[in-house]
Amino acid sequence: MAKITLILSIVFGLATAGIGFLNFQKLGDLKGRLGDTETQLAQTKTTLEQSSKSNTDFQKNVSDLNGKIATMTSDEEKLKSEIAVEKTKVSDLNEKLAAREAEIASQKETADTQTKEIETLKETLAAKEAATETPADDTDKLAKLEEEKGRLLDQVSTLQGRVNDLQQRVDEKVMKTSMKNLSGRILAVNQAWNFVVLDVGDKKGVLTNAELLVKRGGTAIGRVRITSVEPASSIADIIPASIAPGLTIQPGDQVIYPNEKL
Predict the structure, then answer these.
(1) pLDDT 10s digits, 75-117
(2) Which of 23, 114, 202, 251 is 20 to 30 Å from the Cα of 89, by its Cα?
(3) Which architecture does CATH list for 182-256?
(4) Domain residue spans in the chain?
(5) How far is residue 152's CA from residue 128's CA, in Å, rounded to a whole number?
């Protein structure tokens, strides 16, 4: 009986030791799996944090892009508005230009008509002068012819003055129409002879005797008068009385036609 008990004790101890060993192995496996799980959990947490940061950055980029789109849309609307205003200005200017051109054409026609009247008066005057050479004319008739000659001369002088005035007005309006958008630069200055060379010529509408305003940095410093015109350049005399005190015209200064109403 004692032997059986001993054997059973030994068997039970061995069984207990075996179970403990197996449990120890399982515990080791569980610890290893737990470690792997914790590692994976840490990696997953890191990945989530990175994804969260990326999502935050993406949302910020989206917000920035939306802001830029809103700004660009606003700028586009402003630009469209400015373009509409400029188109209106261009349309108004074209209408004014057409009206001025029609007025110039009318004044030229009037000048041509008056020129023909002058020629007719001159022919009439010549006929009257020829008539005074006829020996048969008496003194009274000669006096009347001389009086009529004087009257005709006065008419010719008056009409010629009107034609000259009209021609001057036509020339001025043609000049203003041709040069209203003129802009150029001074290439060279000759202080000794008081003239300048410009980089604009008749291709840009420059006309002889036109006065141009000289500017530097947006400030008017004087005027020049065109004396000679080439296709791509011109020469102008400096108008001394127009130069601002303490300043001199220099190469690179801007020249424009004065902004006056046509």
Answers:
(1) 667 656 665 665 665 565 566 656 666 766 776 677 677 677 7
(2) 202
(3) Beta Barrel (2.40)
(4) 103-176, 182-256
(5) 10
